[in-house]
Design brief:
The complex is a heterotrimer. Chain B is of the alpha/beta class. Chain B is built from 15 helices and 11 strands. The chains are: A alpha+beta, B alpha/beta, C alpha+beta.
Chain lengths: ~325, ~350, ~80
């Protein structure tokens, strides 16, 4: 097979088949992977959850993952947030002309490994090749179907007064990793993206309680953005305690250098869960035994007052409104 | 926070004497005071005023216009601190310039901008040099490195400023200053002692909760005696002598000029430009930039806000057309700007 | 006006110090300080070490409050 992707690989002929068979089918193949125009599925559940997500990331490879793994985790985690067991995924890849075939294989292999770990089948897909410069390396869109579980209906609007605000792991690691991978600021730190498929982590909690009011992955905009979304959707207030928020020390160091707040940095393997405070201890204890949630913590509570707002308890013990995230994160020096 | 900081906090919370005004002139102080919730501890008779200590806030509109011109007319690569990206010029900010295809790089330090110029000899690299005495030495080191490397594609657009001249001008607005810890780390405490001699009080303050509390408690306590005072409440970083090496460096590369402060106007001798010996690194000379007359929104009250004479909420634009996402005045642009801090941490 | 970050000096050569702020490492200029050694803590701003840090903020708070309370006693 060629060493570089060319426009011919998107032309629909022999080279396209070669790319699909030698890379995609080789790694992603399973009994449901279709050669026809659409996959045929037989859901066992009466209700399914259905979601889609587009992925672009620069650089495409970063400590802790690559865009392939990210594109799998993103959709698996979106389904997980609905309490839906992720079953089937599609993937559409737009590859930049001139991309080394080895890079494509590395990405597809990561998708395959993550799919196996998450227990999902990739059942259909598409590849297109775009001219040089029209995309950056590779853009991926994944779409997923998950089966809803009886008795589990988490929603953003379900937040209830007295709920514990739980983060399933330390926050801001993905955003920080990408920032450092771009090597713009000359900072080195031993930080890996938290990118991970979380169905196993979250479903392990169903043995403790099915009463998880809200599950939300703290991707773009980070935990701070999610908290504002949840406060608005439920018309409740949220109070968090800064000293309780788990942050990797190196992430805190990078944030200190650049004047950033980890609350606004993206996570790709960390959820915010709202659940009755009475269950919070057991939930966090269970999370601590999972490999993607060792640093889970209760960071705050849901209140009836100040609906739509998020407050933070500060070092001196007073409460301040959390600044609403907005716009591009810019490092500051002055 | 230890027991001493708790004592400081008690002094502040339980104060019930005459009304006193304390001005923090450092934007990072403004920011940290809000972020740490210190304002909430203050009884009504202690007023904390946010002064003009953010170099982004006081950078005039025309400076951004110059940078826009360099990008659009000279295709210069603009290197800048992230803080300046949102600052509105007459028509465009650097974010707008980047959106329109101009090359704008955010850097952590001017030293990286110089290095970038070395590595990319085909690009004309201009660093937007803003900052007070804390930041200016880094710009000087970048120019020194560029001279050493014999670069002809690196220059700086200066809007550096010094605080000394601003203190007497604003002294009527406050009873005591919280002097900016990191400016004093460079400049030492001589200026504070000179101001003391002319009856102006203040303390050097650090940035942690304990440091801000002890500095404010010191002001509150010493203001009870109607004698001017000075105290260094940040001794772990600030020495009387500061950094002589940094001052020698600034002396060597820069000289004072009259400078426009956005909102305040011209303050004689309060700006810095490169000395003639280093004029080959002065972007204004290298590119022969025309004189810009920046136009700011006439309804904007940033000037009075910077002087501490009105609160952000008294500006007709605040929170309505002027927000952190769409700043009009510079006080909203920098996250540490007075308006931005008020907007984010407590509109009420 | 100036975000500063305390960081530990790991190594120093030719005026450049590698500093470490709880795991975030960067080379910064140490030319403005005399006699910096590995293990020292410095305040870093915009890629330069602007000052040596001589104690933590708790000890500092003790010193400032002791001095203040001493002075207040004489008012």
């Amino acid at each position: 097979m060629d060493k570089m992707i060319t426009l011919a690989h998107g032309g629909g002929g022999r080279k396209t088949s070669e790319l699909i068979n030698n890379i995609f089918r080789k790694h992603l193949g399973n009994e449901e992977f279709t050669s026809d125009d659409a996959a045929v599925l037989e859901p066992a559940a009466k209700k399914i959850a259905f979601t889609t997500d587009g992925f672009i990331v620069t650089p495409w490879r970063f400590p802790g993952g690559n865009i392939g793994k990210l594109s799998l985790c993103g959709t698996v985690n979106d389904l997980t947030c609905m309490g839906a067991h992720p079953k089937w995924l599609s993937c559409a890849c737009v590859i930049e002309e001139g991309t080394p075939v080895d890079d494509v294989e590395e990405i597809v292999r990561a998708m395959a490994e993550t799919a196996i770990e998450a227990g999902v089948h990739i059942v259909c897909g598409d590849t297109k090749v775009a001219g040089r410069g029209q995309v950056d390396h590779m853009f991926i869109t994944t779409t997923g179907i998950g089966e809803l579980q009886d008795g589990i209906y988490p929603k953003g609007s379900n937040a209830t007064r007295g709920d514990a605000v739980i983060v399933t792991n330390d926050i801001g690691r993905h955003g920080c990793t990408i920032l450092l991978s771009r090597d713009q600021y000359g900072i080195d730190a031993d930080i890996k993206s938290d990118c991970a498929p979380l169905w196993g982590t979250v479903s392990s909690l169903f043995t403790i309680t099915k009463n998880l009011h809200t599950i939300r992955d703290a991707t773009r905009g980070g935990v701070g953005t999610v908290l504002y979304e949840l406060a608005r959707e439920s018309n409740k207030g949220i109070r968090i305690d800064r000293s309780k928020i788990p942050v990797d020390p190196a992430v805190a160091g990078v944030c200190g250098m650049l004047g950033l707040d980890p609350l606004y940095l993206a996570c790709e393997g960390t959820m915010v869960i709202l659940a009755p405070m009475d269950d919070a201890g057991k939930i966090v204890e269970k999370l601590h035994s999972g490999k993607y949630s060792r640093n889970a913590a209760v960071i705050g509570t849901v209140t009836d007052d100040e609906p739509g707002k998020v407050f933070v308890k500060t070092d001196v013990g007073t409460e301040m409104i959390l600044p609403e995230p907005g716009g591009e994160l810019l490092p500051r020096i002055c | 926070m230890n027991e001493s900081a708790e004592r400081a906090r008690n002094i502040i919370e339980n104060y019930n004497g005459k009304k006193i005004r304390i001005m923090e002139v450092c934007g990072t102080h403004t920011h940290e005071i809000f972020r740490q919730g210190i304002r909430k501890l203050l009884p009504h008779n202690i007023q904390l005023i946010s002064g003009p200590g953010c170099p982004v806030c006081v950078t005039p509109v025309s400076f951004i216009d110059e940078a826009v011109w360099l990008s659009e007319n000279k295709h210069a690569t603009i290197c800048t601190f992230g803080d300046l990206m949102r600052v509105p010029g007459t028509e465009k900010s650097m974010l707008d310039v980047r959106r329109d295809g101009g090359k704008v790089q955010i850097v952590y330090t001017p030293l990286d901008a110089e290095k970038y110029a070395e590595e990319n000899p085909s690009e004309k690299v201009v660093f937007l040099s803003v900052g007070f005495e804390t930041t200016t030495p880094a710009s000087c080191l970048a120019v020194r490195n560029a001279a050493k490397a014999g670069l002809d594609n690196f220059s700086i657009l200066t809007a550096n400023k010094t605080m000394d001249h601003a203190y007497p001008l604003l002294a009527d607005s406050t009873d005591a200053y919280l002097y900016p810890g990191h400016v004093q780390a460079i400049m030492g405490t001589a200026i504070c002692k000179r101001l003391l001699k002319s009856g102006i009080s203040g303390v050097v303050a650090g940035f942690t909760a304990a440091e801000l509390l002890t500095a404010i408690a010191t002001c509150v306590t010493l203001l009870q005696d109607d004698k001017p005072f000075f105290c260094n409440c940040y001794p772990r970083v600030v020495t009387d002598d500061g950094s002589p090496a940094a001052r020698v460096l600034m002396q060597k590369y820069m000289e004072p000029i009259d400078a426009e402060w956005r909102g305040i106007g011209m303050i004689p001798g309060s700006g810095l430009k490169l000395r003639n010996e280093f004029s080959q690194f002065d972007a204004r000379l290298m590119f022969d930039i025309p004189i810009m007359h920046g136009h700011s929104n006439p309804a904007c009250r940033c000037g009075e806000i910077l002087r501490g004479s009105v609160l952000p909420s008294e500006c007709p634009l605040f929170g309505k057309v002027c927000t952190p996402e769409h700043p009009i005045g510079a006080c909203m642009v920098s996250r540490e700007g007075t308006c931005s801090a008020y907007y984010q941490y407590g509109r009420n | 006006m100036c975000v500063g970050l305390p960081a530990r000096v790991v190594r120093i050569s030719k005026g450049t110090a590698l500093v470490d702020a709880s795991g975030a490492k960067r080379n910064v200029s140490a030319e403005l300080l005399d006699s910096v050694e590995p293990g020292d803590y410095v305040m870093v701003h915009a890629g330069i070490a602007i000052a040596k840090i001589t104690s933590d903020d708790n000890n500092e708070a003790d010193a400032v409050m002791d001095k203040l309370e001493g002075a207040a006693a004489t008012i």
